[in-house]
Structures are given as C-alpha cells and as structure tokens.
Specification:
single chain, 85 residues, mainly beta, four-stranded antiparallel beta sheet, 36% strand, disordered C terminus
C-alpha cells in the first residue's frame, strides 16, 4: 500500500474510480507499448474491473452497477453493509 500522507479526505462532489486487479500469479504488472494494456509480469490469468463512486452530501453513490440482462448501467446508494459502518 502506498503512503497516503497528504491525500485529502473525501468531500462532496468528488468522483472516485476504484480499479482492482485480481491475479492468479504476481501482482506486478507492466504496461504495453499501446500505453493502455496492462499485463502481469508472469503472464498468468488476471481480471480487472472498475467501479465509479460519487461522494454526495448523503450516502456515497455507486455509479457503475451493471443491470443483469440489460446492456446498461444504473446507479444506487452504497448500503451500510459495504461501507463498513
């Protein structure tokens, strides 16, 4: 984990992209010459996904919820269960 010293606290109006990568091998990656594609150094299977969060005056909103069976995204408030409160 990087040192978060100097990183501001979240505040209303901030939008955050959370982009974890789950890998079967090493966590170390390199970016290919296209400047976009990332692969693990050991070339084992890996998966990347993203969620975008909006910090509001009320509950944070998860903006990237895929609606099963439809080719569209919705938005919803993050339940307390997932916020750890």
């Amino acid at each position: 984990m990087e040192n978060l010293e100097g990183v501001p606290e979240t505040q209303e109006g901030i939008v955050i992209a959370v982009e974890p990568i789950v890998a079967t091998g090493t966590w170390k990656v390199k970016v290919l010459s296209d400047g976009w594609t990332a692969i693990t150094l050991d070339n084992k299977n890996a998966a990347h996904y993203e969620h975008t969060l909006a910090i509001t005056s009320g509950e944070p909103e998860l903006l990237t919820i895929f609606i099963k069976g439809k080719n569209e995204f919705g938005k919803r408030t993050i339940s307390k269960k997932y916020r750890g409160t």
